[in-house]
């Protein structure tokens, strides 16, 4: 029987403990498992790099909330991305990535995989012609982040999937910003979804983790082999925290979205703000597409001020919005991408404008957040 999103998020993989009746499955904080004679495994587990019941609970939940058959959990979002890319690419292969993807994704592909003989081209993935022009005979992967970071560009996932199918390449969607509560890339035709579960899935800024989610059985087995053989797994306690966060993802995303919309509207009216990047605003070029492919517009938005100095002043003037990297927690954060999250792409083809400030809008009371924004604007 198929359930709604919230029911699935709360129950998938989260069966009560049969030996004690504990409603919450235990945290199996163990590295290894006793064997009844050589090879006699009691629950199928041997050593926690290969598998651990707490991680299995999370992986079942991850697959279910993305509407996919297989979920794999990693020590970080970048560990997940690295395991996937090392599984599907070989030296000489080429990847097309969005031109404003997460800075760390760009750095991973450019410096780590680049040194190993992987080539890449950045393209505006919201422009199908630009993507088509970037695809070469050696291209194996199209990597899309939507909404993108920090410019909140929206890419049509179904159209990207059609394009990838036509080219015979894999479509990977980084679903970190929207989360599966608002956007279901697998249902729209993506081959693989990746996550930094550090963000909305964990949701409380207290754990770092990543995920790869997909339907293809054969590819899933290969990624699982990389996970086991290269070893970037999530530990039991991290897996537990992430599972706990996922249970409230649906309600949190509703509040993140409503708070962000109120703030976007307030910013949009202010004379000091040059532009607001939020797909929930009707003036956003991706608004109609986002309304079609997402069930809410999320908690991330960016604003453009007069120049880099004004952006820095704004980012250093908020009180409730704390100045920090990362996003997706219940508490609001402010970030100056040019000097913080996206510093590693300065001087490359993925450089972010210096006048941009990014907000991760939390689930505090909207009135308090609006007052904080007003104060920071007054300081600019
Ligand atoms: C944070 C982030 C990542 C990287 O994840 P880590 O957990 O920090 O390794 C990847 N993609 C997006 C969109 C992110 O925000």
UniProtKB/TrEMBL annotation:
Keywords (A to Z) from UniProt: Pyridoxal phosphate, Transferase
E.C. number(s) listed in UniProt: 2.5.1.48
A single GO cellular-component term on record: cytoplasm
Cofactor(s) the protein requires to work: pyridoxal 5'-phosphate
Modified residues (N6-(pyridoxal phosphate)lysine): 199
GO molecular function per UniProt: cystathionine gamma-lyase activity; cystathionine gamma-synthase activity; pyridoxal phosphate binding
EC category: transferase
Pfam entry (one): Cys_Met_Meta_PP
InterPro entries assigned to the protein according to its UniProt record, in alphabetical order: Cys/Met-Metab_PyrdxlP-dep_enz, Cys_met_metab_PP, PyrdxlP-dep_Trfase, PyrdxlP-dep_Trfase_major, PyrdxlP-dep_Trfase_small
An example Gene Ontology biological process: cysteine biosynthetic process via cystathionine
Family, per entry: Belongs to the trans-sulfuration enzymes family.
Name of the protein: Cystathionine gamma-synthase
Organism: Agromyces archimandritae
């Amino acid at each position: 029987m198929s359930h709604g999103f919230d029911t699935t998020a709360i129950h998938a993989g989260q069966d009560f403990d049969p030996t004690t009746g504990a409603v919450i499955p235990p945290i199996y904080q163990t590295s290894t498992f006793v064997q009844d004679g050589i090879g006699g495994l009691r629950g199928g587990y041997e050593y926690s790099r290969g598998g651990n019941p707490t991680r299995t609970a999370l992986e079942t939940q991850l697959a279910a909330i993305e509407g996919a058959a297989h979920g794999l959990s990693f020590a970080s979002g970048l560990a997940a991305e690295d395991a996937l890319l090392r599984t599907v690419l070989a030296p000489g292969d080429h990847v097309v990535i969005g031109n404003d993807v997460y800075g760390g994704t760009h750095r991973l592909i450019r410096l780590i995989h680049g040194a190993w003989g992987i080539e890449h081209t950045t393209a505006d993935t919201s422009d199908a012609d630009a993507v088509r022009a970037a695809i070469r005979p050696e291209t194996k992967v199209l990597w899309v982040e939507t909404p993108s970071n920090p410019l909140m560009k929206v890419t049509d996932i179904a159209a990207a999937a059609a394009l990838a199918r036509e080219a015979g390449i894999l479509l990977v969607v980084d679903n970190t910003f929207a989360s599966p509560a608002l956007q279901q890339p697998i249902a729209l035709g993506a081959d693989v979804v990746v996550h930094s579960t550090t963000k909305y899935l964990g949701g409380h800024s207290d754990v770092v983790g990543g995920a790869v989610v997909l339907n293809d059985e054969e590819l899933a087995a290969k990624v699982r082999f990389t996970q086991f053989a290269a070893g970037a797994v999530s530990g039991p306690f991290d897996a537990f925290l992430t599972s706990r966060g996922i249970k409230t993802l649906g309600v949190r995303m509703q509040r993140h979205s409503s708070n962000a919309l109120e703030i976007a509207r307030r910013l949009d009216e202010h004379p000091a703000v040059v532009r607001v990047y939020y797909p929930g605003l009707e003036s956003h070029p991706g608004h109609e597409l986002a309304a079609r492919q997402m069930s809410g517009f999320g908690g991330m938005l960016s604003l453009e001020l007069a120049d880099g100095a004004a952006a820095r002043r704004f980012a250093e003037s908020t009180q409730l919005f704390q100045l920090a990297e990362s996003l997706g927690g219940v508490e609001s954060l402010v970030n100056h991408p040019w000097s913080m999250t996206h510093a590693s792409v300065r001087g490359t083809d993925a450089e972010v404008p210096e006048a941009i400030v990014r907000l991760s809008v939390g689930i505090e009371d909207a009135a308090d957040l609006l007052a904080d924004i007003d104060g920071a604007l007054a300081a600019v």
